[in-house]
Amino acid sequence: MKVRISLAALAVTALVAAGCGSSNSTTTTSAATSATGTSTQAAASGGGSGSCAASIGIEAPLTGQVAVLGQEQLAFAKLAIADDNKANGTNITLVQGDTQLMPAQATTVTQQFISNNKIVGVVGPAGSQEVEAVGPLFGRAGLAFISGSATNPTLTTSGKNPTFFRTVSRDDVQGPQDAAFIVKHLHPKALMIVDDQEVYSTGLVSSMIPVFQKAGIKVDHESVSQKVTDFSSLVAKVTPDTTVVVLPWQVAANAQQFGKNLAEQKKNATIVGTDGTFSPSAFTTAGSYVSSFGPDITAIPADASIVTAAKAAFPKFGTFGPPIYAATHVLDEAIAAACKSGTPSRDNVLSAVKQTSEGTSILGQPIHFDTKGDLIDAKWFLFKINQQGKYTLVTGS
Amino acid sequence: MSKFIQELVNGLTQGGLYALVALGYSMVYGVLKLLNFAHGDLYMVGAFVGYFVLQWFGGPTALVVPVPIVLACMFLISGVGVGGLGVAIERFAYRPLRDAPRIAPLITALGVSFLLENTMLLLFGASYRDYNTSAFIPFSTGIHIGGVNIWIVQIMVIVLSVALMFGLERIVTRTQLGRQMRAVATDREAAEMLGINVDYTISATFFLGSSLAGVAGVMAGLAFNNIYTLMGFILGLKAFTAAVVGGIGSIPGAMLGGFLIGLAEAFITGYVSSTYSNLIVFGILIAFMILRPTGLLGKVQLQKV
Amino acid sequence: MAVEPKESPGVGVDEWVARSAERKEYPPGWRGDVQRQFERVGWWPRLGLAAAVGVFIPLVIGLNSFQLQVGIDALLLAILALGLNVSVGWAGLLDLGYVAFYGFGAYGYALLSSNQLNPPNGIHWPAYFSIPLVMILAAGLGLAVGWPSRRLIGDYLAIITLFFGEAFVEFVNNVAPTKLGGPNGIIALDPLHGAHLQITTLTGYFYVLLALLVLSMAVLHMLDTSRAGRAWRAVREDPLAASVMTIPVNRVKLLAFAIGAMIAAMAGTVFAAQQSNVFPSNFDTPYLILIYAGLILGGAGSMSGAVLGGLLVSIVLDGFLRSPNQSSYIFYGVILITLLVKLRPWSRVAIVIGGTIVFGFVAHAIVGAISSTAVAGTAGANDWIDLHWAIVPANPVTFGNICFVALLCLVVTLTQVKGWWRTALMIPTLYVAACAWEARLSQVPAITRLLLLGAILIVVMAWRPAGLLGSKRVEVV
User: Whole-prediction pTM value?
Assistant: First the structure.
């Protein structure tokens, strides 16, 4: 027994040493690496192998309550990297970091990425509150991070997140435009607006309610948690003159269920959803309206191959995947450009991202970032779902 | 008035599901004094099993056999399957800890819960699966009087939960197995000395409790359409609450607690406020527990000195 | 280790109690020797030793920012487990809302150290004001939550505390969003500051937390060896007997709640200061589960167990399992170590390991002969193993899933059979485990992390139900 225990102890110490050793090799080089990308970086990032090797990190809720969103983002990020590696001949790898949408975990994952000096760019995190938590950290490390779903306006206006970019538009663009459309074209006398107790939702609600109140519409503001999957109690509150229900939600399947509850209780209210509910496979309630920043990529011929690959990887995707594809693509191109003139480092990837100028993208629009990190000229589309459950464009550039 | 009846039916539907899962909690607690936190995840597994049975029969829009047969198969396969899973979990994870301090199996149950949730996530992915029940049981089937619209699926959930509860009560009070369960719950050592096969009894208890959770999962899928891997987490907490509020260890109590919580949620959301509904429900339950600590139908435990 | 009584039974001296040290069970062999020596050293020097180790780790090993963050998270979890130990381990009260006190401390600090209240200047109190104030308020809250425990026992108290925990998150998420931040939380908090000192670096927070941990352990040790500690133990074992012996049972329970709450709030304030923000989602039930896992894994009832459990759970979960390479080491390493330690005699170990290796090559060759895409092996984690030993098809997802399910079934069967069947079954089990790892589990580190956590919880509890450092309770019939 003594021999066994000592053998086991030896094995454990060997394990720990090996484990710490493999992370220490990144430590010693990270200590030497400064934000200006010195020559040690060249030695560290597999230099001289001929192909352009670097890593991109992804922070997303891969498990937990909203795993459906994070896994969609992961699938699209993997797709983008595979496509770009083939197109540019690079050797970019993806490092996954699970945040479960909790800012404390996002901080830990961010520190993990910052300490891993192979990582020269990050996509994500998914939630606005996570960006608030990790923005200053990325800023201090000079590491560019592009989010595909953080829509809170203050993230770019506060100036606290200097290396933050996003491939989606902001709540203060989508909210008022959706509200204006409802007032002008749907003329409800009364409406119900339900938030899902998350930042995305409450932000949109607070930008929409003033528009409704100014138009003299009676507003019933309700709230329900994202974890709930049945809304019969809320639907029973829909009065006969409530002709519009606004659902600025992130989980499209929940919007679908709300629609079913409306049909079940024979209420004739039109659902208006925001981009979180945009999902041609998950939300198909006839007669509903959905706004989005990107066109329906399934309807863009140029995206056909991506759509087939995406459907194979993640059949019921919505709007969380394509912006991450775009974000990953931006980083891939920045890395490829940096490789042409040397080795990719956080610094030259960051400046390449700032100067991004993609004429077209999976989102059907060019990608340029302004000085604060917002997408310039982000478009707004409004779709209506017809009787067959297909999305038809109503208005939008 | 129609809103009142609507909320009543909504509350009873949701409450029926809470009650079924709470029954399983109560039974397992009764015989093992174990709070099985993995119970909610068994409900989730049942929902997925029902979904795959539905797909096997052609999917919601193209069923190859009549609807009653599909429903019966879903309930049976899910009930038996999840029951068997419950028995396997008990044998593998809880049996070694039968004589351990009470707090240790709590952690094992948490471990089992993590394993179940993430195995389902690994195997089937994070996407919500949609039963799309209205495609094969249209909304028009049901009771539609005045402004009240009650779908037949809601009626089925309520009726089936009550029926299952009565069936369980029958088993526990009238059959040999029930007597053995009650004996083991009262005093395990004495039961063993009387010649009762304790292992078999405990396994049977787990089977019954888990199969109820499995059936509840299928019903949840039918009534609420969307199923996903973490749906059992919240429901498990609420069902545990229902079991305690009704008096833990008591079967009619679990039933009553489940319906009460479902009704409270529905009425408070409908009449008071949806934003604060959870808070208010918690407040009421706390007040209730302070006033009646042993729960509604719980037995006041006499302590022997 | 006989303790000779000075005189034969004097009045008021119970010989059975006086000689209780002789009856203490030590594990046989060298482990008992180590334990006896350890206990001779005395508690305070041991604490000093542990503190010294903690102080020197960042200095000697040189941790990078990720490792420091993991260390900070680990120390926070250790302090929380320590505080929970007071309610659960010492007083025997199941507190399922503990994480709410943590959140209360964090939010309290946030409100007193930011621009949230009283805009535009806000309130910016120094830490030596705000932290004790928050702790005292938390103690009051703990008393309020513990108040129903007068009439409730065990699981009924658990429910009330569970409600309280859930209610807290709902409250800060939905009530008074302008004051409490709502889902947006409160950001831009001051770092810990006071008396011209400011803690802004990760190393600084690491040391602050280490100091707080040592301080808490010292205070709790003094409580443990005092009347309060004895009262808690008595209440835990048998409340009725304790009340007969004039222990004020209710007050003792309330004291346990209050002290646990204070420790959690203290940890919460430092957490808020280090993160520089608070959000409701940080204080939800999943984190409570981690605290419990740490406490019970380490051994409820034992302070060092609580600390060790908290450190271990946090470091393994956050530090090791987050990176795929290190998870591979842990996966293979733990399997090898278990084999080495548990299997006897040596010939059996050799048979199993050798058999697995041979089995692997044979299986790989057979499957390779049937279909070459089935062993393309490009998708796995370790190239050589994937190409030559394990079966990793070009499209590994379905195969990996099947391997995983097969692994679960095999492991369950393994525990139910005995003798030579068990040894024989181990070989395919190990091989299937390796295939499942290479083909599927290593590709989804986020899910694998939680799967391994679940497996670790189950296995450790089955192996040591009292926790790693808990003591087996000797029952006197």
Answer: 0.88
Question: Is C149 in the same domain as C217?
Answer: yes
Cβ pair B228:A68 closer than 8 A? yes
> Could you read off the pLDDT of A346-357 as tens digits, one per residue?
999 999 999 988
Rounded average pLDDT over C143-162? 76
The answer to whether residues C204 and C300 belong to one domain is yes
Instruction: Provide the domain limits for residue C379.
Output: 325-439
Q: Are residues C109 and C179 in the same domain?
A: yes
> Is residue C417 pLDDT above 90, yes or no?
no
Task: State both tokens at A189.
Answer: 């006398």
Q: How far C23 CA sits from the closest chain A CA (Å)?
A: 25
Same domain, A251 and A282: yes
Pair A283, A333 in one domain: no
Give the whole-angstrom CA distance, residue C392 versus residue C386: 6
Verify that A76 and A132 share a domain, yes or no: yes
Residue A69 belongs to a domain with what CATH number?
3.40.50.2300
Contact check, Cβ <8 Å, B97/C461: yes
Report pLDDT for B222. 93
Q: Which residues of C touch B52 (CB under 8 A)?
A: none
pLDDT value at position C8? 59
Nearest to C187 among A11, A97, A132 (CB): A132
Cβ contact, residue pair A115, C341, below 8 Å: no
* Domain contains C465: no
Q: Does residue A145 belong to any structural domain of this protein?
A: yes
Quick check: is A248 in a domain? yes
Q: What is the CA radius of gyration of chain C?
A: 26
Count: domains in chain A: 2
- Tens digit of pLDDT for each residue in B127-136? 899 998 988 8
- Which residue among C240, C441, C454 sits closest to B115, beta carbon to beta carbon? C454
Q: How far apart are the first and last CA of chain B?
A: 55
Domain membership flag for residue C468: no
Q: CA-CA distances (angstroms) from residue C224 to B249, C45, C84?
A: 35, 17, 14
Q: Which two tokens stand for residue A116?
A: 């891993």
Which residues, 6 or more positions from B222, have their beta carbon under 8 angstroms from its beta carbon?
Answer: B50, B71, B131, B133, B137, B153, B156, B157
Per residue in A197-233, pLDDT (tens digit) is 888 899 899 999 999 999 999 999 999 988 888 899 9
CB within 8 Å: A257 and B226? yes
Do C219 and C368 belong to one domain? no
Residue A50, pLDDT above cutoff 80: no
- Please give the ipTM for the structure prediction: 0.88
Q: Which of C168, C156, C146 is nearest to C253 (CA)?
A: C146
Q: How many CB pairs under 8 A join B and C?
A: 144
Cβ distance B237 to C285 less than 8 Å, yes or no, reads yes
Domain range enclosing A264: 171-292
Query: Tens digits of per-residue pLDDT, C19-45?
Result: 766 667 777 777 788 877 777 777 888
Residues C457 and B114 sit within 8 Å (Cβ to Cβ): yes
Provide the number of structural domains found in chain C: 3
Q: Which two tokens stand for residue C87?
A: 């309610």
Instruction: Report CB contact under 8 Å: B126, A67.
Output: yes
Mutate to test the interface with B, among A254, A260, A311 (most CBs of B within 10 A): A260
